[in-house]
Every structure is written in structure tokens, then in C-alpha cells.
TrEMBL record:
Residues 169-320 form the Aspartate/ornithine carbamoyltransferase Asp/Orn-binding domain. This is aspartate carbamoyltransferase. Pathway: Pyrimidine metabolism; UMP biosynthesis via de novo pathway; (S)-dihydroorotate from bicarbonate: step 2/3. It comes from Chrysochromulina tobinii. It catalyses: carbamoyl phosphate + L-aspartate = N-carbamoyl-L-aspartate + phosphate + H(+). Belongs to the aspartate/ornithine carbamoyltransferase superfamily. ATCase family. Catalyzes the condensation of carbamoyl phosphate and aspartate to form carbamoyl aspartate and inorganic phosphate, the committed step in the de novo pyrimidine nucleotide biosynthesis pathway. Pfam families: OTCace, OTCace_N. The keyword Iron-sulfur does not apply.
Length: 329
């Protein structure tokens, strides 16, 4: 592999709207190369001398740590900022924060509780910014690693130079589709595919997918249906993508209690479905009670593989956006 790729170099990563199939193919090929490199050499030096700023105004385990590990696996360094440790406590604007931090680093990763803040911050910057989640907006790097996981793990999914071939699959999104930025990004990413999967949107009525995203799916001719019946949807699912009900997005405890625990994926439910033997069970994590721990030993449980893939995809993003020489891997 060689680099830089003009498709990625120097670009902000803000929304799944900005991707096309050529970009996805380059990214997934690079992520596969990163996975092979880690398995054999553990580390590379292709980003030596580069610095990443991790700016997280919301709690994070997987996204923050995987970006940190990704940069260090490639020889770079990381500085970390949280809301409690930044001058946001003193009233500093997000624009001033990122303009100061880009003086010290080469690329920024930002998580913020307010939708649209990543784009707002990027508009003030000269260096690239990666959106690590903006409130109920999007989480594009999660969608990228999720799609990479499907392509890597499902026997009927393929990634070729001509595009991703997912049209033989049914992707069932289950749970909080209203507040879940991961499912918003997955839906938007699917609209970029010439051969998309069929989407089955399963949620309580109060947590249904936002209308504007359903409109985007319709305009892109993505096959889809919506229901609130998990048991009826399960037998057709090739990928079951489960999300937690996001308590932190509700105005009152009563509103949350009305929909909490709406669906539980456990061994009994999978057997009763019955779920397909090659179905992938995915979850962006953290989970609360929507996937029972008795599913963890099921060979279809893919969520921890998904988390590992997150590091490889983020390694690929950092290398591509920073224009690293991939021939040196």
C-alpha cells in the first residue's frame, strides 16, 4: 500500500454524508493492513512526530481509548482534554479551544454533547478534526467500524473496488433509534452504497428513527421497514445491531422509565426466534440490560470484535487523514 490518498488526506471527518464507496474501499483496505501489522509487529513508526489532541466533553471509554491506542500504535503522541480540565469551565468557546489546541497538534478528535458542534469547531480550524460524537447527531467513526465489522465478519458481505455488496443482507437496528447517534450514522452511511442492505428499524414508537433520516433513506432507495415487534423481526435478521435506551437524553426519569427495558436480547430470545446461525449480534457499547451476558459466549456475538476493529479503523483514519506513508507499515 502507498499513500497519501487524495480521497482522505487533510480532510475533516464530520458526517457519513461526506463518504463515498471509493473512500470506504480505501479505508477498509487500510484497516485490514493495520490489523495485519498489529498481529505481526504490534507497532509502526509511520506517525512518529505527529500529535493527536483527544477532546472529550462527554464520558467515553472505547472511542477515547481506541483513538489513543491507535495513535500510539502508529508511533504518534496524544494529549487529552476533558470539559473539567479545559477552559470551557471559564466560558471559553469551542472555536477558541480548538484553535489553541491545533497550535500544539496535527489532528483533533472531538466529542461534544451538542449536535452540530463538531462542524462548528471544524469551521474555525486549519487542521483536520474528527467527530467522535456530537450529542444526538452523528458518530461517523463508529459507523465506519461497524460497517468494516460487517464486511469482515459476515460471509455474504463483500468489499470490492467497485463497491460494497450488502444487498443480500437484512440489517436490523434495535432499540433507541431516536437518540442513538450510532444508528443515525449507520443509516446515513448505508445511503452511500450502490448495493445497500435492507434496513429493519425496530423501536418503540417514542424512540423511532428521526423523520429526516428516514427521508434520506427513501430518497436513496434503501429498502426499509419499521416496526416495534422484535420477535417478528428476528428470524430475518442477518445483522442485529442493538442499542441501549440513552437515559442521559431524556428530560425526566418518568419519560425514560416508560421505554427502558423495551427489548432484551438473551439466549432464550435467540433460540425462540429462531435467529439465523450466521447472524452477527452487534452493539456499540456500553450496554445496560438490552443484551444479556448469556449471549457473550454465543459465536454470533460480535460486539467485542467490533470494539477491536474500532482501533484498526481509527488507525487507518489517522494514517490516511495525516497522509502517512503506508508502504512503511
Amino acid at each position: 500500500m502507498t499513500s497519501p490518498s487524495p480521497l482522505w488526506t487533510g480532510k475533516h471527518v464530520l458526517s457519513c454524508d461526506q463518504f463515498d464507496e471509493a473512500m470506504l474501499h480505501v479505508l477498509f483496505e487500510t484497516a485490514s493492513a493495520m490489523k495485519a501489522m498489529v498481529a505481526t509487529k504490534r507497532k509502526s513508526a509511520i506517525l512518529t512526530g505527529r500529535v493527536l489532541a483527544n477532546i472529550f466533553y462527554e464520558p467515553s471509554t472505547r472511542t477515547m481509548c481506541s483513538f489513543d491506542a491507535a495513535m500510539k500504535r502508529l508511533g504518534g503522541d496524544v494529549i487529552s482534554v476533558s470539559e473539567s480540565s479545559s477552559s470551557a469551565k471559564k466560558g471559553e468557546t469551542i472555536e477558541d479551544t480548538v484553535r489553541c489546541l491545533e497550535c500544539y497538534c496535527d489532528i483533533l478528535v472531538l466529542r461534544h454533547p451538542v449536535k452540530g458542534t463538531a462542524a462548528q469547531a471544524a469551521s474555525a480550524m486549519k487542521k483536520p478534526l474528527i467527530n467522535a460524537g456530537d450529542g444526538v447527531g452523528e458518530h461517523p467513526t463508529q459507523a465506519l467500524l461497524d460497517l468494516f465489522t460487517v464486511v469482515s465478519a459476515h460471509p455474504r458481505a463483500k468489499s470490492t473496488a467497485e463497491g460494497l455488496q450488502l444487498d443480500s443482507l437484512t440489517l436490523t437496528l434495535l432499540g433507541d433509534l431516536k437518540h442513538g447517534r450510532t444508528v443515525h450514522s449507520i443509516a446515513r452511511l448505508v445511503t452511500k452504497l450502490s448495493r445497500p442492505p435492507t434496513l429493519h428499524l425496530v423501536s418503540p414508537a417514542l424512540l423511532s428513527m428521526p423523520a429526516e433520516i428516514c427521508d434520506e433513506l427513501s430518497k436513496a432507495n434503501v429498502p426499509m421497514q419499521a416496526s416495534d415487534d422484535f420477535a417478528a423481526a428476528l428470524p430475518a435478521a442477518d445483522v442485529l445491531y442493538v442499542t441501549r435506551v440513552q437515559k442521559e437524553r431524556f428530560a425526566t426519569e418518568a419519560e425514560y422509565a416508560a421505554v427502558a427495558g423495551s427489548y432484551v436480547v438473551n439466549a432464550a430470545a435467540l433460540a425462540a426466534g429462531p435467529a439465523k446461525p450466521d447472524m452477527l449480534i452487534m452493539h456499540p457499547l456500553p450496554r445496560v440490560d438490552e443484551i444479556s451476558t448469556d449471549v457473550d459466549a454465543d459465536p454470533r456475538a460480535t460486539y467485542f470484535i467490533e470494539m477491536e476493529n474500532g482501533m484498526y479503523v481509527r488507525m487507518a483514519l489517522l494514517a490516511l487523514v495525516l497522509g502517512a506513508d503506508l508502504s512503511a507499515l
